[in-house]
Amino acid sequence: MEKTGIVSIRIYENEKNHLNTESQKKNMTVNSLGRQIISKHIAWHRYAKDMGYTCVTKSLLELLFKNADKNTINDISTNTHTTLKNTILFIHGEINIQNTLSVLDTWLDACNISFRHFTDFHIEKYVISHNMGKRFSEYLEVSINSVLEEVEHVISNQTLDELHITFEIEKVQK
Description:
α1 crosses α2, α3 (58-66) packs across α6 (134-149) and α4 (70-92) crosses α6 (134-149). The chain has helices at residues 13-25, 30-48, 58-66, 70-92, 97-110, 134-149; strands at 114-120, 123-129, 153-160, 164-171. It has six helices and four strands; from the N terminus they run αααααββαββ. It has a four-stranded antiparallel sheet, covered by helices on one side. It is of the alpha+beta class.
């Protein structure tokens, strides 16, 4: 277990009330909620602005991808590949499979895209639930696969539809 330390901070009373309410809704302690908020900030939010990330609504993405053709999806995926690759380097200093999966998980979480990441007998498996259409699933498939190729891995056993994409990650056999 990782060693912890104690930090005491002063916050406004209304912020304290919001934290108490949020922790009760999530059935967790204020301490756990605070640790979660700090962890997300350290892992992603402190870098997001410098890396060029912005927030858009799900309905905007649905509209953009619904009308996108294959070439447009490939162009967007190429841009996402470059951005994710640069993000991995910026946050971790090197690109390897562990850092790639870490950024992938953090990116999906920061984008508020529901996902599960399982490791089963050294096989990485993802279930991503987005409800933004088949084109968005195709975009995720191409984007994630291109980043994985940087570390000699690829998506396999994938299924995708309008709501989800599921896949495993395997090392490229040479």
